[in-house]
Amino acid sequence: MMERFNIYYKEINAHAEVSRFAPKGKTEEYHVMIHVAPCDEMFPQQYKRICQAEDLLLQHPDLQGAKVIFKRYFVSDATNQKPLMRQENTDAVSLIQQPPLDGSKVAVWIYLAKELEVAAKEGCMTASHNGYTHIYKMGMHEHNGDSATQTESLLLDYEETLAKFNATLADNCIRTWFFVRDVDTQYAGMVKARRENFTEQGLTEKTHYIASTGIGGLPADTRSLVQLGTYALTGHEPTQVRYLYAPAYLNPTYEYGVTFERGTCVEYGDRAEIYISGTASIDNKGNVLYLGDIQKQTFRMMENVNALLTEAGSGFQDIAQIIVYLRDVSDYAMVKAIFDERFPDIPRVITLAPVCRPTWLIEMECIAITQRGNDKFRDF
User: Fold this and answer.
1) Cα gap 147→225, rounded to integer Å
2) Under 8 Å between Cβ of 183 and 142
3) Which range of residues forms the domain containing residue 103?
4) Domain count, the chain
5) For residue 245, which of 262, 265, 228 has the smallest C-alpha distance?
6) How far is it, in rounded angstroms, from Cα 53 to Cα 294?
7) Nearest-5° angle of CA 95, CA 98, CA 102?
8) What distance in Å separates the CA atoms of residue 325 and residue 299, rounded to the nearest whole number?
9) In a domain? residue 268
10) What is the CATH number of the domain that holds 62?
11) Could you read off the pLDDT tens digit of each residue along the chain, which spans 380 residues?
């Protein structure tokens, strides 16, 4: 069962929202969102408190022995703030300009686990256990060309990296994140290059795609139009991975020219991990619903996510973390109130990040973990 709790660090005006999945005698997983109160401080002071909270987190009795596998920082000014951050020797740490909307300049999402053997390898962070290797590569970006050229280059480089693990995009990549500078004008180029690359890799509407979020976000390098983050898995059987569609609520993405799965469920002997892609207010014909109404779009978005989780044999009770993307900062108070009522204890961050269609006011993604007893597969 999923446990959730908050840790308050009053002396540094910070708090950690924690989800803990810890079946008895099994591998424990944690998703954590750390937030700081703005305190009328500049970025260095807020970031220092984030780092202090990260250090204190690992001293908490429930997390002692947990290893950090990846981190993502959400910042308000990536170009100017990245040089002020400590250098972390891992390709599984990234930052993106998607300002937290609680008034702070920085928040961080951290994924941790116990018992996994964590190592830096081939420019990735790997976490191995029980014959599986989880491969995280975050913060990939390019300098040259338009958004299509940069996307093509990023995917080719990533495929070369996967080959070093005897893995491929089609067989092993579980989840991607594409952060696009000025998404209203640059998204189409990313979509085109991704579709062409996927076709070459054997990913088509007749096979499968990959769970993904394509969203507005500014890389720290001002020349970069696209930043890519990825998660891949090796050591599993193909039947352990299945794709989620919820056809009564959502249409296949290829019908409007994009190439990603609505969600992906990875089955293990003791649990299932469910990766819900960026999901918005859309119907099963591909139409945007409730134009201009942030409240109704939020509720429809939640319906769609619930339908995907239900198809995976899960539900809201199993969600470990949520990221919410808003187009308009003035919608924050209303959206926060809805999420506070519906998901009061789930770790989350609400950021300023335009969605890929201008008429979508909000999008969310999440990860859920649910207990299983499936003797066909090895435990996590």
Assistant:
1) 6
2) no
3) 1-114
4) 1
5) 262
6) 33
7) 115
8) 14
9) no
10) 3.30.1330
11) 799 999 999 999 999 999 999 999 999 999 999 999 999 999 999 999 999 999 999 999 999 999 999 999 999 999 999 999 998 878 889 999 999 999 999 999 999 999 999 999 999 999 999 999 999 999 999 999 999 999 999 999 999 999 999 999 999 999 999 999 999 999 999 999 999 999 999 999 999 999 999 999 999 999 999 999 999 999 999 999 999 999 999 999 999 899 999 999 999 999 999 999 999 999 999 999 999 999 999 999 999 999 999 999 999 999 999 999 999 999 999 999 999 999 999 999 999 999 999 999 999 999 999 999 999 999 99
Which residue's structure tokens are 């054997």?
202
Asked whether residue 200 is assigned to any structural domain, the reply reads no
Q: Token pair for residue 163? A: 């080959």
The model's pTM: 0.98
CA 189-160-365 angle, 5° bins: 55
Tell me if 79 is assigned to some domain.
yes
Residue 30 lies in a domain: yes
CB 348 within 8 A of CB 323: yes
Q: How far apart are CA 98 and CA 218, in angstroms?
A: 7
